[in-house]
Amino acid sequence: MRLFIHALGASAGGGLTYLRNVIPHLAERGDTEITLLAGETARAALPSFSNVQLLDSGVDHQGALSRFIWEQKEIPELIRKMGADVLVSAGNFAVWNSPVPQILLSRNSLYTSAEFSKDLRRRGEYRLWADTRLKALLARKSIHRAQLTVAPSEAFACELRKWSGHDVIALHHGFDREFFLQEKTALLPITPKLRETEGAVRLLFVSHYNYYRNFETLLRAVAIIKQRWRSRRIRLLLTCELAPGKNPGSYRTEEARELLHELKIAEEVVQLGAIPYPLLHHLYRSCDVYVTPAYTETFAHPLVEAMASGLPIIASDLAVHREITNGTALFFEKFSPDDLANKVVRLLDSPSQQLDLRERGLLQAENFSWTNHAGRLLEMAGTLTKAA
Fold it and tell me: What mean pLDDT is predicted for residues 206-214?
């Protein structure tokens, strides 16, 4: 089978993680040839495979609308040229006139989230709000254009079905524990910052700064924990920096940065910056609790990484978070710093509960497999080919 994977939108975060993991597993299939159309960042992150051909579009630095127009015009010709059997569009938007059956991977809940839209208006981000609404329109029409739409969780698939009126299949993203843990090099770039937190309880949140990850609720919770739990030092470790130009996208960090000083928690919040993916497991294992305050998600891959690293989890109460952790986490009301702080203090005061969540999380992480994900994706492609 010959797959054409359109992944120009996968330049950071979950999209990049997806390509980094799924391409090697697809490439393992000796009867599969892959053409991957991706940006410079994604191409640089992938090893070479004899049956994977990487294409450069030359539109990395164009705006989203210009790139979309280019995609609709040029990709059908590229598909014909490469003799592909099936198109996999990995970035939420379909190719309108694909000459072959198309699988659309839809994994952006910002297009369906009323809370994100409300948050943008509250922040005065009207340009980003309008841009998101336009992309949401294209994403919904894309579901109508594709022969098959796949979401990374049942919770998000259900949301997409209601939103689009079309059937959507749920297929969990995978996880490869051996691959995740294979790098033995120590965390040298951030060792001094970690050393400064020795003796403190370390909370960890793995994310670039963006609005929907709800950093502000987490920061307010840290201030509450600091006041209520005076007997112990607390440190929140972030894999980003709350500074202009330090994060992908156009999200403004001023509100979060000002909270550090307003709440007097600048010392408690350790901004590590981006951590190379192969080194992340060292960071997880050096911490005590994983926290995520996101108010919308489609899969939340760091939850699986945290479970596989033996970290107990406290997450905002989302259907997606409950599905992925499956009874192995504590949950708090997503916009309540008090509830989050209470859950953290309660967990830290209960070694037995920490151990229970760790043990159950390790077992739950074993249910996610990139091998199974890639195999199921190829099954879907094969079914579409036979029906064409």
Answer: 96
Query: Residue 28's pLDDT is what?
Result: 87
Q: What is the mean pLDDT of the segment spanning 353-369?
A: 97
CA of residue 364 relative to chain centroid, distance: 18
Find out whether 178 and 369 touch, Cβ atoms under 8 Å: no
Dihedral in degrees, nearest 10, Cα atoms 54, 57, 62, 64: -80
Model confidence at 245: pLDDT above 90: no
pLDDT at 171 over 90: yes
Q: What is the residue-averaged pLDDT of the chain?
A: 91
Q: Rounded distance, CA 205 to CA 222, Å?
A: 12
What SS3 string covers 56-92?
CCCCCCCCHHHHHHHHHHHHHHHHHHHCCCEEEECCC
d(CA 194, CA 16): 26
Confidence of residue 64 (pLDDT cuts 50, 70, 90): low
What is the Cα 148 distance to its own chain's centre?
Answer: 22
In the three-class reduction of DSSP (H, G, I as helix; E, B as strand; rest coil), residue 234 is classed as: strand
DSSP count for the chain of H helices, then E strands: 16, 13
Q: What angle do CA 366, 367, 369 make, to 5 degrees?
A: 85
Q: Please tell me what DSSP assigns to residue 293.
A: -
Q: What is the pLDDT of residue 109?
A: 96
Domains along the sequence of the chain with CATH: 2-174+369-387 (3.40.50.2000), 182-365 (3.40.50.2000)
The DSSP symbol for 113 reads -
Of the candidates 143, 116, 144, 151, the residue with the CA atom closest to the CA atom of residue 131: 116
DSSP state, residue 288: S
